[in-house]
């Protein structure tokens, strides 16, 4: 496997972050929300979350982490969703923003938001850095989307292939050389 074309440069990713944070700001202002718990979905969303929280116009933010994934080691979704650390997070009566790397089939975010809603938060929103709408197998729409992308396997800016390439400051398509 090789890194192919760059899909989003560092500068384009910054524009995505700033735009997504502005979208979030306007909803928080509209709904008069002045404190937020951001739940970063490990591990792919860690870079996006770090950049996003520094662009949201709110001082009172807590940052929590869950581990959720429906992928094994490869590029094909296994269908099963594993979740960890959710029970350690205070959710009841809180305003929750889940930050995920990619909405793909939608299974991970659907399962995760259902589990969060069962704990009676005041609000739950979902921000996905990327959306692959054509891949959806369950009904799920993120509230905030950084960018829609075609059905290609991407790496970089937190996203891995088999644990590698999360460090790349850009997002690139992975493919056979
Ligand atoms: P879903 O439950 O929506 O099928 O799975 C979404 C998860 O699959 C994402 O959080 C991400 O971890 C992984 N995923 C989906 N597409 C890609 C991709 O193009 N590249 C990488 N690295 N992971 C992906
Ligand atoms: Mg993931």
Round the mean pLDDT to the nearest integer and report it.
Answer: 93
**How would you write the strand order of the largest sheet?**
4-3-2-5-6-7
Number of helices: 3
SSE order, one letter for each helix or strand:
EHEHEEEHEEEE
The main β sheet shows up as: 6 strands, mixed
Helix content: 10-25%
What is the alpha-carbon Rg in Å? 16 Å
Low-confidence stretches: none
* Alpha-beta content class: alpha/beta
Distance between the termini: 6 Å
Question: Roughly what fraction of the amino acids lie in strands?
Answer: 35-45%
- Number of DSSP strand runs: 9
Hetero ligands:
guanosine-5'-monophosphate, magnesium ion
In one word, what is the shape?
Answer: globular
